[in-house]
Design brief:
Length: 624
């Protein structure tokens, strides 16, 4: 059942057709019936007094059914709401700024490349506005229906709302407060980065477009969602004369292919004594966009529940950004491999953030100048002096630090929606209130409650919880620091061994420590898994601050030197309940065939949702 459900999902994601969509829905309803029957059996036991901690944990995890608790007619509506939003997102096309008659621009690659490479203020505004209209703008009524049904499902699982249902994964009564505390630790650094980037953008675009003490226009940061700013490195790099760590030109020169990128990633894992991928991975994965088919290009890793079939689906391009994404996805695969022999109920990450952090922890090692020299992608004579170090850390910060407030508000907004603090009458303006308050960005054009800008992001449309990425971006530095110390590559008391230069490639001791944690799956609460690899039992942003300390010191001094104000004043929220005058922007014709991939942002781990089917009855065999 689990395998069949995931195969149906895979077929649709890799070949978007009406028939595959029908088969996916049909299979999901079959699975839901099975799940519900098993759930009724599990919840008939009075398991709370059980004294065996392992058995009690299994019952606790299996006693939550999820959306399948809904009556079948409502479950069908729920699934159709999400499918409709995903299809809108996947099929969205916009018209070209330079050639208005060309209305066939997809998110990936055309729109993504335009947002990353164009430096034309008006073109970027046009692309930003059209994407938001053609994606999120068309799914608002679907989202309203989804919220109603999703909350109903959560309540049938004994949670107050969907937000509370999501947070069960973190097994903490203070999780929201913990996240806010982490953000407050990171925020001073973010404010310094924001001020510096704003000054550089103002120098390029002019003060009339980027005012000195105002939020940054959202379309100028190199990414449709302003979630990572690495694509504007050319505008903000502190020392332009120094060599870049973007090794894309060298990868192309050496004839890298998507397959070689995956082979290089696997070799990094196995060099640490971690597990190789099975033959099924190479025969089943899709690592390049299929010719002649519309597919979901948003990279994802898949576990087909049988202990041997693991796959990645990614429309890989030969560049450094995708090289890092490959390591992220291979981190998911390594987690699958390590816990494949556990009972199905435990074949998950310690929490969702752990699954996202594994590959990224290794990617921090991969992207160091030391490692890039080792694998021949960077000339061994490339200097690593102070200026080069600041360039490197700034380039890394544009992706890592800039991401935190976006990751926070993605779910902070949904928590407010799910618990009723924000009604549908305020969906869009509340979104922009949070984006200005936490990110310090503004929409480039006036927004209204006719718009639905949250839906312009894949994870909203596809109903993927997002705080996992905030957690991941904290704990990946905790993992990285611990593995670096284990490998003898970092000593906080030795200036010649800074954290940002650590490369634990080929270190078996670091691999053994990481592998032991991965093999635990979700069999123990996540603080115990954290302790296994870091010696700590809580999330802590100190490793993050240690890594970036030289840059933080430099940014504070540079902003003082430039006289750049830190923070921003609100010029009034650029959102109104009543719609602005009708846009004269040209729109593409209606789409009748599913076209265009999903893309953008951290890659989503698609869980093997049907594991619960087999796990239910496996557990019943133990207790009946």
């Amino acid at each position: 059942m689990c395998y069949k459900s995931n195969i149906a999902e895979w077929q649709f994601a890799s070949d978007i057709t009406d028939e595959n969509e029908r088969l996916k829905l049909e299979q999901s309803l079959v699975a839901a019936r099975f799940e519900k029957e098993a759930w009724k059996n599990i919840t008939s036991f009075n398991w709370q007094p059980f004294t065996d901690p392992d058995l009690k944990r299994k019952f606790k995890l299996l006693s939550v059914l999820g959306p399948s608790a809904l009556p079948e007619d409502k479950l069908t509506q729920y699934r159709k709401s999400i499918d409709a939003m995903e299809k809108i997102y996947s099929t969205a096309k916009i018209c070209s700024f330079a050639n208005p008659g060309d209305c066939g621009m997809n998110l990936d690659p055309e729109i993504t490349e335009k947002m990353s490479k164009s430096r034309n203020f008006d073109e970027l505004k046009h692309v930003w506005q059209q994407w938001h209209e053609q994606s999120g703008g068309k799914m608002r009524h679907h989202y309203e229906k989804f919220v109603q049904l999703s909350n109903e499902a959560a309540q049938m699982n004994n949670f107050s709302d969907t937000g509370a249902y999501w947070l069960r994964n973190y097994e903490s009564d203070t999780f929201k407060e913990d996240i806010e505390g982490l953000w407050q630790t990171i925020k001073p650094f973010y404010l310094q980065l924001h001020a510096y980037v704003r000054a550089k953008l103002r120098a390029h675009y002019g003060e009339d477009k980027v005012p000195k003490d105002q939020p940054i226009p959202a379309h100028l940061l190199g990414n449709m969602w302003a979630q990572s700013w690495g694509n504007i490195d050319d505008l903000v790099t502190p020392y332009p004369g120094k060599s870049s760590i973007d090794v894309t030109p060298e990868m192309l020169k050496q004839g890298y292919t998507p397959k070689k990128m995956f082979e290089m990633s696997e070799e990094f894992f196995t060099s640490m004594g971690l597990l190789p991928t099975p033959p099924e991975f190479w025969s089943g994965s899709i690592i390049e966009k299929l010719v002649g088919k519309e597919m979901v290009c948003h990279a994802s890793a898949w576990d087909f529940c049988n202990g041997k079939d693991f796959r990645i689906k990614q429309c890989t391009k030969v560049n450094m950004e995708d090289f890092i994404v490959v390591h992220h996805e291979m981190g998911h695969i390594q987690y699958f491999l390590q816990y494949k022999n556990l009972p199905l109920v435990y074949r998950e990450g310690a929490n969702s953030g752990f699954h996202e952090a594994v590959g990224d922890s290794l990617a921090l090692s991969v992207q160091t100048t030391k490692h890039l020299k080792e694998i021949g992608l960077l000339d061994k004579s490339t200097p690593t002096d102070h200026e080069a170090t600041i360039n490197y850390l700034l380039a890394t910060a544009l992706d890592k630090i800039a991401f935190f407030p976006f990751a926070y508000i993605m779910d902070k907004w949904r928590w407010d929606v799910f618990d009723g603090s924000v009604t549908s009458a305020d969906y869009n303006c509340h979104w922009w209130k949070l984006r200005e308050e936490y990110q310090g960005i503004r929409s480039p054009v006036t927004r209204s409650e006719v718009d639905f800008d949250p839906g312009a992001k894949y994870h909203i449309a596809a109903n993927v919880e997002y705080i996992r990425y905030f957690v991941s971006f904290v704990i990946q530095f905790q993992f990285y620091k611990s593995l670096c110390v284990t490998a003898g590559q970092y000593d906080p008391h030795n200036p010649s061994q800074p954290l940002h230069e650590c490369d634990f490639y080929r270190n078996k001791e670091a691999g053994a420590k990481l592998g032991a944690m991965l093999a635990m799956g979700s069999s123990r609460p996540w603080p115990e898994a954290m302790r296994a690899v870091t010696g700590q039992d809580r999330m802590d942003a100190n490793a993050f601050r240690e890594y970036f300390k030289p840059l933080e010191v430099w940014l504070i001094a540079k902003n003082k030197e430039l006289g750049e104000p830190v923070g921003w004043n609100s010029g009034g929220l650029n959102c109104q309940k009543n719609p602005p005058p009708t846009s004269t922007t040209q729109h593409p014709p209606p789409v009748t065939q599913p076209v265009g991939p999903k893309s953008g942002g951290p890659t989503v781990f698609l869980p093997h949702g049907a594991w619960i089917l087999v796990a239910f009855y496996s557990l019943l065999n133990l207790v009946v």
